[in-house]
Each structure stands twice: as C-alpha cells, then as structure tokens.
Design a protein that fits this description.
This protein has 174 residues and is mainly α. The chain contains eight helices and no strands.
Amino acid sequence: MTVRYFSFFTILSNVLVGLVAAAAAIGGSWAPLRVLRTPGARGLAAVSIMVTCLVYATMLQGLWHPLGAQLLADRSLHYVVPLLYMAWWMAVLPHGTLAWPHALRWLLFPLVFAVWTLSRGALVHEYPYPFLDVDRLGYSQVLLDCLAVGALFLALGFGLVAIDRALARRPALT
C-alpha cells in the first residue's frame, strides 16, 4: 500500500512542497534543511506542484468522483496546495536567484518518476495514471505522453525562471 501511495506524482509533489515549506519554517543549519531552502529546491517544488495541478485539471479530474473527505483531499492536493504554494513563492520568497539551467535540472524529477513508474508497472502491471498505462497504450504512446508532460515541465520551468527574474526587478513594498 505505501509503495503504491508514493507512486503518484501528486503525492510526491505535495510532499516536496511540504518539505520545502517546513524547511523554511524550521530554519537551522542542518544540511537537508539548507538544501530544501535553496532557490533550486523551491523552484522545483513550484514547477512540480503546477504540473500536478495542470495535468489533473486537464487529464484526470473527470476520471473519478470523490465525495466527502476524499473530495476535500482531492481538491486540496490538486488545487489548494498549488495555489497557496505559488502565492507564497511569488509574494514571500526572495527572487532573482534562479538561472535558466535550473529548468533543465528540474527535469530530473519527472524523469526519475517516469523510470520508476514504468519499471514498477512492468513488474506489477499497475500504473498510477491512465496515460502511463503501458499494458493498455503500449510503449510508443506512453513515451509520447511522457515527452508531452516533460515539455510542460520544461516550459513551466523556463516560465518560472522568467517570473523569478521579473519579480527581482520589482520595487520593494514599503
């Protein structure tokens, strides 16, 4: 059950956002916390949670109809957390420190996710999302789907770097 739960990009991206936010709140000099407070980690969390929101809204939302607590969790993970994190990233965090290569480095996260998902799927014949289901779609279609999500990830990454640079030039609020 636990491996399956952590096989969803939604869960991984929300955990990353939670870790980045916790590291910011805790402070301290412990190396893992320092890494999570870097502009690169904060940017990766932003792009990952935006991809979670956009892919869910455009490809997955209609596939199930949660009620009650499941509906609350669903909306929180896919819409509320992305909105709040992006608001925090834009309004509170310092800007002007992201560089264009960050967007390329951030691709490692979805790449590792895809390799993990397809490797695990080949063994257990279970895929977290329909567009990754090799048993149903075949490797050619799943590769195209992965490339499309990777392109979205890269475009959002470059967009985030551009926004970071623009926010660095804005006048300070006094």
